[in-house]
User: Fold these one by one.
Assistant:
Number 1:
Amino acid sequence: MCIRDSMKDALAMHLYSTLMQRLQPGTVFDLGTAGGGSALWFADQLRAMGLPSSTVLTADIEDLRDDTCRALHAATPNLVCVHGDLSRANAVAAMLASAACGLELVDAELTELQLEAIKDKLPHPWLVAEDCHVPTAQLVRSFEMAGLEVGDYIIFEDTHPNHPDAAGMSSLDMENYSCGEWAGVKLEEVEKAMHEAGCFMIDSSIQDMYGINGATFVNSVYVKVRSLRSGP
């Protein structure tokens, strides 16, 4: 697997690996499987850190993996791949249920009793790597429903103002490169939603390891520090 296949740059990979070494996550959520390289990288990192029982749960709305990557995923014992619409209200809980039952399709509508029964299927701490670009507030509520705990992390990718406005753009072809608009909108949405949630703080020891916001994601490394605010 090459670094390009993971769709993560070298700085992001170091920040993730540093956080994982510190956090010792029980479950890593790789949201936005795409070609599948990032899920393999997360799974390799967990095993290299002596956490073979920790699980990578990767999800996307459709399967974009090639046959080679599907085979690698199937051969990786600590990696589970599911597919479904993560923008649905209970999508994360359904994703957990699907993974726990060995299913690949996220299509369940869960009752409260069923939801309680699956909350302990994937151990904490949780590390959520968000690269699926669904509405932030909805995603956070969905993870809260699924059992997000104090000490769990969510990292939102592609929030740097120099991030390209469309997939496939390259800085080697500046005549056809534009940036700032798409990532700026996402960053504004992320900051608004996380502020309104009232239970997260930015971990600057990770976010600013290479200098203030010296990463491909800006103000986007969040740790849950208290229960979700229930009122306005």
Number 2:
Amino acid sequence: FCMTDKLIRIAIVNGERCKPKRCSLECKRSCPVVRMGKIGCLEVTSKSKVALISEVLCVGCGICVKKCPFDAIQIINLPKELDKETVHRYGPNSFKLHRLPVPRPGQILGLVGTNGIGKSTALKVLAAKLKPNLGEWKTPPDWTEILNHFRGSELQNYFTRVLEDNIKAIIKPQYVDAIPRAIKGTVADVLSRKDERDAMDKMTTDLQLREVLDREIGVLSGGELQRFALAILGVQEADVYMVDEP
């Protein structure tokens, strides 16, 4: 990171939008740090797949953001104290998650926000579907380091219990269109196999699935798949229920 007294900066390059082979490398040509002769602030050639921005050298001027013809670059200023609260990052110039919500017994917690701010990533981490790397994507920490990072917080106790299988957390996926490829059978057959709480009748009634009980999963509509995914979640026994895009 490039730090000032109060801010840290995150540079994000959208790999799907960045197209060095189809532009004039406006980002690099307009970067004041590169023009001053400092090597490595913004690295890209016409043969590159994507541009690479050094968060250490970046001064946060935002010129590259304005010059990019494909709107592929974001420079985000954050409070400096968040630097020590990084939970996960997928790679260089990519999304970065700071902090986590804390699940508590008997409480309902909602995460609201625009697309791409980390809601799904946070749920995957809490459900133990994604191991948090604390921002160290090159050399991910082990669980001892991760628990030490959360030492003294409710999350330390939560992750400890998850690792010891003292807490079962299950999650409804964000994208349900993949369900037919992973699960075969009729709605009734699948739900009956998953029913650990004797809750199938209630869930299928509440979610209006009674009329599709005999249908194969592969022929369900998008809305029916969403309700089916919620029903699978509801019939299982767990300590924490997570619903991504209900």
Number 3:
Amino acid sequence: QANLVIMKKELADKFHQFCLKNSQPCPLLSVLEPGQYEPQQLASGSDVRTDLPKYRVYREGKLIEEVSDITNIFESDMVSFFIGCSFSFESLLLKENIRIKNVDEKKNVAMYKTNIDCQSCEPFSTKMVVSMRPIKNSQLERVAQLTSNMPQAHGPPIHIGDPSEIGISDISKVDFGDSISISDDETPVFWACGVTSSLAAISPQSGTVITHSPGYMFVTDVLDSDGKKLFDSVNQPKTI
């Protein structure tokens, strides 16, 4: 699965640099040419304008609307960025008999703004957003090992344990997604989250920016096992 950010070409190079500087919260999977709307490398025959369940439209940094189709908004000079998502490592954890509480509870993952600064690339800067999954205490080390091998899905945890250490004062109050219960034999584990890219992109200087709505991702045809190869090929300097 992938997060989505679409913006005008004039700022796309700067945003690309921002993603390269912050590859853990913003692991690039694909960057389309201006005006292109079919991400052939991710899903041949798909259409970035219609194939997400819900989009958010921002202008000058303000949320204008949420829509299910951006065909009438998408312009010929817009560049689409696809950014990895931690949902992509959940199947691997489940295969290892590691419980995923948001899956069990049929909820979206819990997401929070933190006090962790991303590296800025003006006009793009933001605090890092993280996702949280409660993990059994006996499985913490294994979870860190497994996810460290998936940089395309944010890699290893950013933080394990006390949420206040990364600026989260009340873990029951999410900034995005749904609150997830934490049992006595579980520890909250935090991964960098692709919503970081959306918050960075909606600078007042960015003009019109389109993103996925949190939790409403672009589903690719790329297998999880092929994701790292894709990440390695895309996360290189380039001019858009």
